[in-house]
Amino acid sequence: MISDHRLLKAMEEKGYKELTPIQKEIIPIIEAGFDVIGQSQTGTGKTAAFAIPLIEKLDAQLKKPQIIVVTPTRELAIQVAGEFKSLCKYIPGVKSVAIYGGEPIQYQIKAIKQGAQIIVGTPGRLMDHLRRRTLRLQNLFCAVIDEADEMLRMGFREDIETIFAAMDDGIQKLLFSATMPKAILNITDRYLSNAEHVKIKAESVVTDTIYQTVVTVKSSDKKDALYRILETKNPTRAIIFCNTKHMVDKITAELVEKSFTADKIHGDMKQNQRIEVLRRFNDGNLQYLVATDVAARGLDIQSVDLVVNFDLPDMEEFYVHRIGRSGRAGESGESVTIVTHKDRDKFRDIESYMKKRVEHVKVPSIKSMNKAKIDQFVKTLIETIDELDLKDYYDIIDRFEKLGYSSRKVAAALLAKNLLLQQKSESDLNDLSVFKNKKNYRAKDKKKKNYKNNRRKRRR
């Protein structure tokens, strides 16, 4: 299937041990020259599914745009361009460039003129280059529309149609989308020719690798529940999703105030700020990333242990995209969703959409939170003992022993001093959970429904 040894070497370095289901199905179709409609959720290896065969078809000697990829966001454009770059690592002369708004257009014009064959960009900036005639499509052999449903949701339909209309009829066209609303089907009917439709079911992507739980609390207890969850689980890296930029700002500020290493990403931030935050998070310099749904789709975020839905998303599919940031590429992951009274019906809709019931659990107690802190303290202390030379501190221990205090007593006093500062009192909110389990959750609804019915009968 893949014949170029240079491409295979780059794939091996990236850890591609075997092709994902969508790659197995789509690569041969693209190699054969057919148009493709690919339907799959995030985390399936979709970018490599179209990048690998297109790289093999590309002419490295021709220093003109040959492949164009249209993406809904700047972050996704940067990620896709980066994927092409890493796969072309051992193929001399092949260049990819990401073009998007928020960056001086002169830099992008220069990159295109220097011979970039792969152009990845957002609709608005691509249209700008086409109008300026700084991007010409005469040598194009393939166009890719990525995250098409997200682009329609953001109002880019006319831009997509304009870009398609600017291309020659014989150009291969590939369209990828998590969902296939009627508007997308209209575009594919109009611009794609005898396209092969490949669909990878969501159930095989997300639900098998991610341990999902939900906690139900009063609206006023949401933040307390969040902090207990984070302190108890203490993930290496986690994403916390909120629905509004205001809430992202608020949660991030409070996390930093509580000495968590956290930062944020949302649409009001400048592009260079967002890229820098993502870099720090991927490098392991941030434990927590607080984000709106801009980070849920398409971004290259690796090795996330935990996803917390502080707010329930407006659409069922967004829930799947969010938790899909954890448990990628076969790795195990975990998600916790914080639900209030008003969210219950919406969360049932999410369960129906996934065809899966999510386990209802209690918010971690003060006792379990303190135990988690002790476990983490012991782990850190063991690492200190194993890694540092402690001989310089033995004299201090000897001083205590001369005063009649044993080493064991001194160690216990130091532990007490450190741990008491970290632990919380049982007098704090003991149990934030409104519902102890799913059975009680539904029993409460039934009781409420019976009460309403009895009131109606009495009125009659």
List keywords for this structure.
single chain; 460 residues; alpha/beta; 7-stranded parallel sheet; 18 helices; 47% helix
Runs in which pLDDT lies below 50 for 5 or more consecutive residues are 425-429, 435-444
Mean pLDDT: 84
Report the span from N to C terminus: 74 Å
- Which range does the strand content fall in? 5-15%
What's the alpha carbon Rg, rounded to whole Å? 27 Å
Which oligomeric form is depicted?
single chain
Q: How would you describe this structure to a colleague?
A:
It contains 18 helices and 14 strands. The chain is globular. The protein has helices spanning 5-13, 21-31, 46-57, 74-87, 105-113, 123-132, 148-153, 157-165, 182-191, 222-233, 245-257, 271-282, 316-323, 344-354, 366-387, 394-402, 407-422, 438-459; strands at residues 36-39, 67-70, 96-99, 118-121, 142-145, 172-177, 196-199, 210-216, 238-241, 262-265, 288-291, 306-309, 333-339, 359-360. Residues 425-429 and 435-444 have low confidence and may be disordered. The strands form two sheets. Strands 3-4-2-5-6-1-7 form a seven-stranded parallel beta sheet, with helices on both faces. It is α/β, with parallel strands linked by helices and 460 residues long. α2 (21-31) runs parallel beside α3 (46-57), α3 (46-57) packs across α4 (74-87) and α10 runs parallel beside α15 (366-387).
